[in-house]
Design a protein that fits this description.
By secondary structure, this protein is α/β, with parallel strands linked by helices. It has 11 helices and 9 strands. It has a 9-stranded mixed beta sheet with strand order 1-2-3-5-4-6-7-8-9, sandwiched between helices.
């Protein structure tokens, strides 16, 4: 696929037209307050697996609605005091998978907390966290589940789970609560942006080719899933475009970015049709903290930098946590 979005010099100044709801902050304050009425009840059960350099805990904690959310906590086997910590969120359709697939950050000396994704985890990776909340008729996937209203939208639950995942990670004695970073790719990058806007004291974030940004542009620019799920829904449910745009405005990474208070390392790929580069730059350009960088992969699609971006994160993160 050749370049299809704005030229790079225009991307660096591009601003989203997404309209921020007047009650954005109160909506999320109320959502998180309701979630915190449930005891976090984070549990860390040791996992007996034949790995010599790390120890792994099977994690459960209370997310949105008090629903039990799964995760893994992996730490270097030598750890006996609090460590800088990475909290990771997973891409669309995936789950926490098996513990031996998450060795990078513990190998670099970090504690690593990876959150399972409610109701997903059956396209790749695998996971064990259901979503016990139903929804009105939706297009297959997750983008239109409960999309009629911000209160019922799927990502309200998932973003709340993610904030609670940070709180669960910080409750473990081997996690230094003052040195916690959030990261993830694609959907995981979009979740990272939400956490970066909702958790005021993170040490850093690193969203990789983030999804869930600049919905007004993404909905009309790309016909690739998952954004296309929204268009397919509207093909059947005619006349609801403005209603859906209103709902999505509460979940747009651009608005979370405007509240970002931590150093940030983004990435974008200029041939990415899944998360078009203009939508990524919309969030990057809105990111409020003055210390921010973006790695640009000019001839890559949604794979972005892949291991090269991981290498960039490994170089960048130690100076921030």
């Amino acid at each position: 696929m050749a370049l299809f979005d704005l030229p790079l010099d225009e991307l660096r100044t591009y601003r989203s037209a997404s309209a921020e709801p007047e009650d954005f902050d109160s909506f999320w304050a109320k959502t998180l307050q309701e979630a915190r009425e449930h005891d976090l009840a984070a549990r860390f059960e040791p996992v007996d697996i034949p790995l010599k350099t790390v120890t792994v805990h099977d994690v459960t904690f209370a997310g949105f609605g008090g629903h039990r959310i799964k995760g893994w906590l992996t730490v270097p086997a030598w750890a006996n005091s609090p460590l800088p910590t990475v909290v990771e969120f997973i891409g669309y359709g995936g789950g926490r998978g098996l513990p031996h697939t998450h060795l990078l950050w513990a190998s670099a000396g970090f504690a690593h907390f990876v959150m399972d994704t409610r109701g997903q985890a059956s396209a790749w990776g695998g996971g064990e966290t259901p979503d016990p909340v139903g929804s009105a008729p939706a297009f297959p996937g997750f983008m239109t589940r409960g999309i009629e209203d911000p209160e019922t939208y799927y990502y309200r639950r998932l973003f709340t789970d993610a904030v609670r995942a940070v709180e669960a990670a910080r409750s473990h004695p081997l996690v230094d609560a003052a040195r916690v970073a959030a990261l993830g790719g694609s959907q995981g990058g979009g979740i990272t942006l939400a956490v970066g806007g909702l958790v005021p004291d993170l040490a850093a974030i690193a969203p990789d080719v983030p999804f869930l940004c600049d919905f007004p542009r993404a909905m009309v620019l790309t016909d690739r899933a998952p954004y296309r799920e929204i268009g397919n829904y509207l093909k059947t449910h005619r006349g609801r475009t403005e209603q859906l745009r209103r709902t999505l405005s509460y979940f747009d990474g651009v608005h979370f970015a405007a509240r970002g208070r931590a150093p940030a390392l983004f990435s974008a790929a200029l041939e990415d049709q899944t998360c078009p580069p203009s939508t990524v730059f919309a969030a990057y350009n809105a990111w409020a903290h003055e210390e921010k960088e973006i790695e640009v992969y000019d001839f890559n699609d949604h794979e972005g930098g892949g291991p090269y971006q991981q290498a960039a994160q490994l170089r960048w993160l130690p100076g921030r946590v």
